[in-house]
Amino acid sequence: MKKYTTLFLSWCLMILLAPSATCQNQDLPNIFWFMSEDNSPLLGVYGNEIVHTPAMDKFGEQALVFDNAFANAPVCAPSRSTLITGMHASSLGSEHMRSKVNLPTGIRFFPQYLKEAGYFTSLRIKRDYNIPQQAGTWDIDQWWDLKDALKGRASNQPFFVFYNTWMTHEDKLRPGKIEDYFKGTMKYLGAHKLDSLERSIVKMDPEKVLVPDYLPNIPSVRAELALYYECMQRLDMEFALAMQFLKDSGELDNTIVIYTSDHGGVFGRSKRFTFETGLKIPMMMQVPEKYQQAFGIKTKRRTDQVVSLVDMAPTLLAFAGIEAPDYMTGKPIFDPNLAEDRMAYGFRGRMDESYDLIRTVRSKNYRYIRNFNPHRPQGQWIKYLWNAQSMQDWERLHLEGKLSKVEDRFFTPKAVEELYDVNKDPFNVNNLALLPEYQDLLKKMRQALFTEMQVTGDIGFIPEGEYFAASEKGETTYQAYADSQGMANIIQAARHCTKEPSANEALQYLKSETAAIRFWGATAFLQTDLKMNRKEKKAVIKALKMTLKDESGDVAATSAEALLVLGEKKVGADELAKLLSHQNPYVVLRVCNILDERAIKSAEIYTKLKALEQSDAFDDLSDKYIKNKLSRLLQAYEQGS
C-alpha cells in the first residue's frame, strides 16, 4: 500500500482545494453501501461450499475482498452507533442495547460531512444507532423500493446510498418470517418475477449443514442452519437487484460499491458474543477503474489487513476528499500508514435484559478476550434470543446433563482471559490462555487491549445505573460524567477485582469515594476462587453489609449478591427485595439479573416481583427489559424450579 501514498494524498488535496464540492463536481465518486444483518462471512467467495450466493461471489471476484474485517460490537445498535459516528460505542456509553445516550457537542453522524461536500444522502429506513437521531443527516430516508432511492437528487449530483436489508436478520428464522419479508421486499418486481425467484431457491438439506463445534448437533439446530442458508440465497437475489439498479441508472461506473454485514450471527454464541462468529464479517469493495489509481486500490484481490466498522466513516469521507475529524477513532482503510500489526477492538455490554462486560482485540491470527463478569456464563437468558427453538433445546439439554463438555461450556462461568488461534480454531473452543508457550503472546495482546481501552476512552466500566442517575441530576452526556470520575482508576479497579484479587485489595476498592470503583470492589467478592481466611472473610462481610446502604444502587445490589456468595443468604435476599423498589430502572434491572442467576426463593421477593409486573413505574425500553426478566423469574417461582 505504501507505493500509492502520494496518489492518495494528491487526490484528497485536489478535492479539498477545490472552490466548493457542489453537485456539479462530477469528479466525486458515488458511494453505495449495501449492509445486511447478522452475517458471518458465509459466502462462496469466503470458502463456504454449501451456500448458494452467485451474485455476491461474482461481485467478490471483481472486488477487493477483506479476509479480516470485523464489527466492533456483536449486535446491531451498538455496532451502528460505532459506524455512524466513527467512534466506538464503548467511548460514548452506547454499548448497551437500547441505551439512552446523548452525544457530546460536536460529534456528528458522518453522512452530514458528505452532504456538506455536495452529496445527496439516501437511507433505506433503518437507523438503530442507539443514540438520538440527528436532524439533517439524510436528504431522503423513508424509501423502501430501490426505484425511490434517488428521488430528489439533482442532475449529476454525487450520492451516498446506505441500503439496509433485514433479509438475514435472526427473526427470519421464525416460521413464515422470511417468506413474508422476501415478498414484501420484491413485490415491485411483479407476481410473475417474484414467483420465478421463489422457485429458484435451492432447498437446503439440514443433514448437510456444518454444525459449529460449540452447538449441539440436534434437529432444531440443523433446521435453523438450513433455513439461514436459504435466507442467504434470498439476500443474494436482493444484492443482484441492487447491482442491476446501479447498472440501469447508468451510475455503476461512477460508484464505489461496498458490501458488509452489521455484525456476525445469527445463532447462540455468535450474534451478541465476542467470538469470531459474532464479530467477523464479510467486507467487499468494488471501486470503478477511473478511481483506482487515485486511491491506490487494486481490484480482483484479497487483503488480510485488519479493518473494522469503526474505520468506515473516515474511509467514506476520504473517498469524498474529506479529512476525518479528530474525534473519529477509525482510520481510512487505504491509509498507507496503517500498521500491519493493527488489531480490531471489540466490546460487549448489556444485551437486552442481561448484563455482561467483555472486551476483545483481534490480530491477524489470534483473538484475545477479557471477561469482566467471569462469574456470569455466556448463556444468560435473553428473551429475543430464546425465541429460537434451538436455544430452548440447547438449554434443556444442559439442564438434563446431556451436553458434551464443549457444548455445556456456554452455560458455565467464563474464564477471565481467553486466547484463540483463529486459523486452527475458527469457532474459538480451545482456550490457549493458560498454556505456558502462549504466555508471551497473551501478555502482548492483554497490553494491546488495555492500551486500546485507554486510547479510545472506553467509559463502559461505569455501571449503567450510575450514568442514568447522573443524567437525571443534570449531566448532559455520559462522557462528561465519566470525565469527572477518573476512568483510568476505574478501569484499573475492574482489572484487579476480576482477576485474582486479594481480599484486602478488594476491600480498599470497596472504600473508595468513587461509586464505580466501589462497584468493582464488590464485584471482586463474586469470584468463587477468591481466597480468604476466617478473619478476612469476617472483615469482608462487615464491609459489604455497610455498603448495602450505599447511595449507588448498583453498588448495593452487587454487595448484596456478594453476601449471597459468602453465605449471608438472608441479608443478601432482604436487600435485593428492597432494591426492587428502587427508582432507578437500571438498578432494578441489575437486581433482576442477580435473581435470575442466583435462583433465590423468598416470599418477599415474589411479592415484589408480582407488584412490579403490574406496575407502570417505568415507561421506557428498560421497562420492557425489566418485564421480560420479571416474566422469567415469576415463571420459575410458580413452577417451583
Notable traits:
four-stranded antiparallel β-sheet, single chain, alpha/beta, disordered N terminus, 25 helices, eight-stranded mixed β-sheet, 641 residues, 10% strand
Description:
- By secondary structure, the chain is of the alpha/beta class.
- Helix 18 packs parallel to helix 20, helix 21 runs parallel beside helix 23 and helix 23 runs parallel beside helix 25.
- The N terminus is likely disordered.
Topology summary:
Elements: H1 5-16, E1 30-36, H2 54-62, E2 64-70, H3 76-85, H4 89-92, H5 111-116, E3 120-123, E4 159-164, H6 177-186, H7 191-200, H8 219-248, E5 255-261, H9 276-279, E6 280-286, H10 289-295, E7 301-303, E8 307-308, H11 312-319, E9 344-348, E10 358-362, E11 366-371, H12 389-399, H13 405-408, E12 417-421, H14 439-456, H15 464-472, H16 478-485, H17 487-497, H18 503-510, H19 515-524, H20 534-547, H21 553-565, H22 569-579, H23 585-598, H24 603-613, H25 621-639
Parallel strand pairs: 1-4, 1-5, 2-7, 2-8, 3-4
Antiparallel strand pairs: 2-6, 5-6, 9-10, 10-11, 11-12
Helix pairs in contact: 8-12, 17-19, 18-19, 18-20, 19-21, 20-21, 21-22, 21-23, 23-25, 24-25
